[in-house]
Specification:
The chain has 252 residues and is an alpha+beta fold. It has five helices and eleven strands. Helix 1 packs across helix 2 and helix 1 crosses helix 3.
Length: 252
């Protein structure tokens, strides 16, 4: 919280407090625009931001700018989580673990997807042990299936366990996600994709160009990165999340 100037009267203090809040808001708008890659900003906000920088002492300016960046990051993180959870294109949440069963037949993933779908199931795979060449993923044997919820669109699905905290608070370690294979990623969608080291990651799609896809974490402690847009880079879109046991234990 920004404190009013010491030694000022009640009205002066309130005015100073409001003035500092105006400056913070202006700088936050500028910081958010920078985070979003905007090429232009409303003239009023640009003027307020420039005026706030010139009027503040260097130490105050640095402190206010740090506050503005934290504020902008928090706003962007909340917006990203809302986009990932909203509407038909969001991640549906189920507050229990998935129903598991032994695979009808242990088979490579490509075959297992079709066999499981025929009985309303999806193969369950631990991608933490499927790093490396994407070809190896499809050769990995699947021994467990999960039962699919009713009313899912027809498609090819894969269930995957979540590890790590980069997608908190939407996804936590121990959760299980359902991926619709082959779905075309759009900005804001949560996807499973091949990362820069050829392992698989769960991320939110940022900007998409003809050559690359930006992958973002919902946890602001992790920086976004870009991967080449090519067949097989994005495994599919996350459509559903089952809650894991670790959520109840305060996992990070």
């Amino acid at each position: 919280m920004i404190e009013p100037t010491h030694g000022a009267g009640p009205h002066d203090a309130a005015d100073a407090h409001a003035d500092l809040e105006d400056r913070l808001t202006a700088l936050a708008g500028l910081a958010a625009a920078g985070r979003l890659g905007a090429t232009s900003l409303d003239g009023l906000y640009a003027w307020l931001a420039a005026d706030a920088r010139l009027a503040a002492a260097p130490a105050d300016r640095r402190r206010t700018e740090r506050q503005a960046l934290r504020f902008a990051d928090a706003l962007l993180a909340r917006r990203a989580i809302a986009r990932a959870s909203a509407g038909d294109g969001g991640v549906r949440a189920i507050a229990r673990r998935p129903l598991e069963r032994a695979a009808g037949r242990v088979a490579p993933l490509d075959e297992a997807v079709a066999r499981a779908a025929a009985v309303g199931c999806a193969p369950l795979l631990d991608l933490r042990v499927a790093a490396g060449d994407g070809r190896l993923l499809w050769e990995q044997a699947c021994e467990r299936w999960v039962t699919l919820p009713a009313a899912l669109p027809v498609g090819r699905y894969l269930a995957v366990g979540v590890a790590g905290d980069s997608m908190l608070p939407l996804l936590a370690p121990g959760d299980t996600i359902l991926v619709r294979l082959g779905a075309e990623p759009a900005a804001g969608a949560v996807v499973v994709a091949r990362g820069r080291d050829d392992g698989y990651v769960v991320k939110q799609v940022g900007r998409v160009t003809a050559r690359s896809v930006e992958l973002r974490s919902l946890n602001p402690a992790y920086a976004p990165f870009r991967v080449r847009r090519a067949p097989g880079t994005v495994l599919g879109v996350v459509v559903l999340r089952w809650r894991g046991e670790e959520r109840g234990r305060g996992a990070t």
